[in-house]
Amino acid sequence: MKDAAPQTIYLRDYTPPAYLVDDVHLTFKLAATKTRVMSRIRFRPNPEATSNEFFLHGEDLKLINAKIDGEDITPELTATGLSCPVPDAPFTFEAEVEINPQANTALEGLYMSNGMYCTQCEAEGFRKITYYPDRPDVMATFTVRIESDLPVLLSNSNPTGQGEGWAEWHDPWPKPAYLFALVAGDLVNHPDLFTTMSGKDVELNIWVRPGDEGKCAFGMEALKKSMKWDEDVYGREYDLDVFNIVAVDDFNMGAMENKGLNIFNSSAVLASPETSTDANFERIEAIIAHEYFHNWTGNRITCRDWFQLCLKEGLTVFRDQQFTGDMRSHAVKRIDDAVVLRAHQFREDNGPLAHPVRPESFVEINNFYTVTVYEKGAEVIGMLKRLVGDDEYKKALDLYFDRHDGDAATIEDWLKVFEDATGRDLTQFARWYSQAGTPRVSVREDFVDGTYTLHLTQQTPPTPGQPHKDPMVIPIAVGLLNDNGDEVVPTKMLEMTQAEQSFSFEGLASKPIPSILRGFSAPVILEHDQTKAQRAFLLAHDTDPFNKWDAGRKLAQDVLVGMVRDGATPDGAYLDGLAAVLRDDSLDPAFRAQVLALPSEDDTAQALVDLDHVPDPTAIYDAHETLKLQIAQHLQDQLPRSYADMAVPGPYTPDAEPAGKRALGNTVLSLMSKLDGGRQATQQYATADNMTQQLAALGALLKIGKGKAELSAFGEQWQNDRLVMDKWFGLQVACASPDQAAATAETLAAHPAFDIRNPNRFRSVFGALGGNAAGFHHPSGKAYDLLADWLIKLDELNPQTTARMSTAFSTWKRYDDNRQAKMRHALGRIAAKPGLSADTTEMVSRILG
Ligand code: PHE
Ligand code: ZN
Q1: How far is the first Cα of the chain from the last one, in angstroms, to the nearest whole number?
Q2: Angle at the Cα of 818 (from 813 to 823), degrees rounded to 5?
């Protein structure tokens, strides 16, 4: 039974738990439709409690019996939990419940995926396993017994015994219930060993379904690199003798950091050259690192309550970004992260779903696993590090681990550590956690008698529930160049704290050209009216790689906006700038590929909105296609040579260097395809020995309306590989023309290999539909209706993924009356669905505003 009226929960209402848990014993008798869970939990009154009411969360559980100190009790049950009178002293609570993992399509709690049992407890899934105080500030040691005739039975941390049909595990580290995990299945392992900095051997395993064992090696290397890196950079050593990773096909998110037993979406761990792209490899390396890093930032130090989610996620994303930068290229990684932040987080901040990095209220916490909490949360830490400097950051982190190990902590604790370690007052900085919205920093400059002055103004637009905004602390990295492109003032960190503030540089021979917000030093929008010539100059000369790229990006955006709004033709300065970058062998190929990539159509839509222009996705699509063709024509003479230069000899490796060459080679290939009718792409498809080359060639062909034969050959070749088939589904929708996108998605959803219960497959079709801007926003409204139909169906099975995917509609207010009406209609249909989940209800009503 579902709770009829979902409640809004407020940060300000936090109270400490009434009872604490010393330890938990769980016994699972696994059966597909009738699993029994026996619990024995030792409670004691919390001396800090403000109430003595005993309440245990529990949802969709069939209570068989319950006892307190061995005596049968008859507790009061509701749709959300259990309560009963308890002694005013330590006591033992026991319960036996029955659950149905087979029927669990929401993929929260204990569920089944291809015959394997698997759990997902973050954020509030443990309450679907047994009655428990399911909140992160209740931490306990767990002992788990699993009974099943499946061969591999796993739970958190250390194995303590096993026999025919059973296994026992013990986790010595007190943890919140959201970090509990159990897996049972017919699995095979890819084992390895890691010796920690203090000389302890740790047994590592990646567990997969038989047949996937050949796709584990890369993930295992990534794990060992992560373990080493966390020792070298943060001084953090692993704290158990075993570390297990399990791959599961049906999973709502990327992966989960359960203590000692990480569970991964198979797409986030399984890799091979034939089946995975370079981008897949890089993502897997980052996610393995991310989950591993959670062992300290999340598990050893966890969150007091779910409002503090960014405490673990912002920090852990920041750490995985540092790691990827160290493993690959800092410049390239920074650009990738900025692209994601601007495309998704700025968009979130700018619409009805805007919320602070630390939200103040929620109905369904699952709806707050957002780019704002994760990626902006990471940016806030990056700013903190820039402001205090590397050494002080290290001091603060050491103090954080020292002071809070074993705690369920808050953002206040986190900031206090920085204040104590560095002596800085972070009162104003703390606004980054409480104030939603993207600050806009506008720039005016003057030059008088050798003194150059930047006049900066900051302003954050209102967001839902926050009409008034205060000035933020914004680190703004600035360098100055002269007309020859020499750096006359190297990068300097300006600290903006006021609404309006000026910064001067003295003793300059001539008016310099500023390079502002170097390295993307703060997650803000820089409003700086520069001419196309100035942008082209920075694209050619800036010594800061981020700003060099960004100058090209802004130039491209100016060009696209001009084409859509004024029917302008592409600027020669831009095309010449691209030609120079493509030709410049001193630049990293990965970086050159980033410069050659256009902003997304959605970025262009947002740029038009910023200029008070109602965006027409069809016109934007046409402008992008026209510009790509013109770039291809402008670079025509260079393309074959660049393509040949980017060929990688020898066997495939997913390392950054060859991957960068392939990235540029494939960018060039897609341009060549606009001119050669797909000749080169057809050849690349035929000879490709890795998925990166194969998929890029197929995509280039589909984009020019060719590749029918290759598409069906691909489907045939990979029909038994679920992860590759996800690509086959997704690519067709992504590459479909605006007129065909909805029809393509509809046809694919009727394909026998489409499976609404598998989130990866559902996303491959409908995530791609939302991502095909002109197709999704086709004026007929066909795609809106199709997505709404499928979200309505999915909600009955999987509310979490439905709610997440409903964000495709979040930009509805940007568009013309026709599109707005059609999107509102689609949202209204979803909202009106009887029995709609709390997750989707909250999301749709926030989107509608
Ligand atoms: N905590 C996971 C991560 O960030 C994400 C996650 C959240 C997974 C909720 C499942 C459910 O690594
Ligand atoms: Zn995380």
Answers
A1: 28
A2: 55
Q: Percentage of the chain surpassing pLDDT 90?
A: 99
Distance separating alpha carbons of residues 440 and 462, to the nearest angstrom: 12
Ligand 1 atom at minimum distance from 291 CA: 12
Instruction: Report whether residue 544 contacts ligand 1, using a CB cutoff of 6 Å.
Output: no
Please choose from 121, 180, 253 the residue to mutate so as to test ligand 1's pocket, defined by most ligand atoms within 8 A of CB: 253
Give the chain's length. Answer: 849
Q: What angle do CA 239, 241, 246 make, to 5 degrees?
A: 95
State whether the beta carbon of 122 lies less than 6 angstroms from ligand 1. yes
Beta strands in 336-431 (DSSP E): 361-362, 408-409
Residue type, 677: G
Of the candidates 370, 371, 365, the one whose C-alpha atom is nearest the C-alpha of residue 122 is 365
290 ligand 1 Cβ < 6 A: yes
Give the separation between CA 583 and CA 215, rounded to whole angstroms: 37
Q: Which amino acid is at 278?
A: D
User: What is the Å distance from ligand 1's center to 353 Cα?
Assistant: 20
Whether 320 is in the pocket of ligand 1, judged by its Cβ within 6 Å, is: no
Does residue 4 register a pLDDT over 70?
no
> Is 800 near ligand 1, meaning CB less than 6 Å away?
no
516-531 pLDDT, tens digit each? 999 999 999 999 999 9
Measure the CA–CA gap between 811 and 603, rounded to whole angstroms: 12
Burial 413-441 (b: 16+ CB within 10 A, else e): bbbbbbeebbebebeebbbbbebbbbbeb
Closest Cα to atom 3 of ligand 1:
256
The span from the CA of 132 to the CA of 142, in Å, is 13
- How far is the C-alpha of 85 from the C-alpha of 18, rounded, in Å? 13
CB-count exposure of residue 210 (10 Å: 0-12, 13-18, 19+)? exposed
**pLDDT band at residue 571, thresholds of 50, 70 and 90?**
confident
| Cα–chain center distance at 818 | 32
Residue 819: both structure tokens together: 């599109």
Q: Is 792 exposed, middle or buried (0-12, 13-18, 19+ CB in 10 A)?
A: middle
795 alpha carbon – ligand 2 mean position (Å): 25
Looking up tokens 């068989």 gives: 64
- Per-residue DSSP letter, 497: -
Instruction: Say what the pTM is.
Output: 0.99
Contact assessment for residue 459 and residue 439, using Cβ atoms and an 8 Å cutoff: yes
**How many whole angstroms from 709 Cα to the centroid of ligand 1?**
39
SS3 (DSSP) at 271 = coil
123 alpha carbon – ligand 1 mean position (Å):
8
φ and ψ at residue 502, rounded to 5 degrees: -120, 145
Q: The tokens of 168 are what?
A: 């026992």
454-467 burial, b if ≥16 CB within 10 A, otherwise e? bebbbebbebeebe
- Taking each continuous run of H as one helix and of E as one strand, the counts in the chain are 30, 31
